[in-house]
Structures are given as C-alpha cells and as structure tokens.
Write a structure and sequence with these properties.
about 260 residues; about 75% helix; flat
Length: about 260
C-alpha cells in the first residue's frame, strides 16, 4: 500500500527531474516542447504530493498543517499550485527553474522535522483550522512567486531571458491574487482566536507579524494602483514583503514565544 512518505519521495523526484527541462527553458529563447515537459513533470509531482497530503489527512483526522513538518509540506504544495497557475496564466516557465529549486529546499527542510503523528492540542481542534491555514498558505505561495519574480526583476539578467514588463506583471498579479487570501486568513484567524482564547486580537507575535506582512502588501497595491513609485521600487517592496512572510511563518516560531508556539 502506498504511504505518505513514499508519495512525498515520488513528488520530490518529479520536481527534481523537472529542473532539467526548466534549465533548458531558461537558457533558450523559445522552447515550447520543453515547457510542456517541464509542466507535465511538475504536475505529476503535484499529484503525488496531493495524494500524500490526503493520506496524512485521513490518518490524522484533521487538515495536515498543525506542526512545522506538515505546514512545510502544505506550503510546498500551495507554492507548486501557485506556480502552475502563474505559468498557465502569465507564461512564467523561465522562472520555473528557480521556483522549483526553492520548492525543493522547502521540502528538504520539511524532511528534517519530526513527521510523527501526535494528538491534536485543544486550541487546534476547530473547524477554522483548514480555512485559516489554507488561505494563509495559498497567499504565501502566491507571494513566493512574486518574490522570485522580484529577484529576477532586480538582477541584471539578459533581456532574452526575461522581459521586465512581464516580470512586473507577474509580481503585481501574484500579489493581487494573494492579498485577498491573506486578508481572509488574518480575519479567520481572529475569529478562531476569539473562539479558542476569548479575544479576537491579543498582539501575539505571530498576529503582529501577520499584520505587518498584510500592511506591506497593502502598501504595494496602493502604490502600484496610484502609480506613485517606479516598477523597480515596487519590486523591492515585494521582496521585503516576502521576507516578512518568512519571518511571520518561521522566524516567529524560532525566535519569539507566544500563543502560536505550538507550531515550532
């Protein structure tokens, strides 16, 4: 019988092999056949990872995102989905190599954590769990795509590989997609906090940094829509925004303590 760890290994292998056609796509001006192969390999990896998450959900009896191991696998899954969405709608196969390298790093970091199934603590025994975590992590996946595009925009890469206008659109569209999800994630988290701890907002470190992250991306959208800053400056805002995402997600757990310390 297939198990979660085997399926995750299969997913990791498909993503790893997809780096080969993605590398050729990056260096060639046009490579439609290679783009299809790369997309197909990533899709197969995503199917295996989806099956692994489904098995984890069935075994634990709850959404697989209650500790660092589960959340990293879930984030990787959301990241790949957001990449495929952006690739299909915005044609960003040339960024695929870098996105998949980052995704592999996320999975390897997940594999370094304890994957044992443990009893769910009372604060997490809520119907809000799946909605809150899913909206947050899909927003993180979209912001991760915008982050990679921001780096590509800010680096002096050859024009044959990237169009700055296209990269600016990828940054903008990814943030425009992720921002409402983050908003819903913060709002659902507040409702859940009131249910679990008796207060909608307690200035817990995780809550505070989630608000800081929300404000950075709100600032990006405001400046983008009002045309107040140049595209290069906006790319820097996107870059800083994702650094805030990483600190909200991982840094708070490592360096600060609070009501969300169970995610460490």
């Amino acid at each position: 019988m297939l198990n979660e760890y085997f399926l995750l290994s299969v997913a990791f292998a498909f993503y790893l092999v997809s780096l080969i056609p993605h590398a050729f796509v990056f260096f060639r001006k046009t490579a439609p056949r290679l783009e299809k192969w790369a997309r197909a390999l990533v899709s197969l990896g995503l199917l295996a990872q989806t099956a692994a998450l489904a098995i984890r959900w069935k075994v634990t009896g709850h959404a697989p995102c209650t500790n660092m191991y589960e959340s990293l696998v879930f984030f990787s899954w959301a990241f790949v989905i957001m990449y495929l969405w952006a690739d299909l709608t915005l044609k960003i196969s040339r960024l695929g190599f870098f996105i998949l390298v980052c995704n592999q790093a996320v999975l390897m970091y997940a594999f370094s954590h304890d994957a044992a199934v443990k009893p769910l603590m009372p604060a997490l025994q809520s119907n809000w769990l799946a909605l809150h975590v899913a909206t947050c992590f899909f927003s993180y996946g979209a912001f991760a795509v915008s982050f990679i595009a921001s780096i590509a925009y800010l680096l002096p890469l050859p024009k044959k590989n990237f169009s700055r206008e296209r990269l600016d659109q990828v940054i903008y569209r990814s943030i425009l997609f992720g921002f409402p999800l983050l908003t819903l994630g913060v709002a659902s988290g507040a409702v859940w906090a009131n249910e679990a701890w008796g207060a909608y907002w307690s200035w817990d470190p995780k809550e505070t940094w989630a608000l800081i992250t929300w404000m950075i991306y709100a600032l990006y959208l405001h400046l983008r829509l009002m045309k107040r800053w140049s595209e290069k400056k906006l790319a820097w805002v996107s870059f800083i925004g994702f650094l805030s995402v990483i600190f909200t997600y991982i840094g708070v757990n490592l360096f600060l303590t609070g009501l969300h310390s169970y995610a460490s």
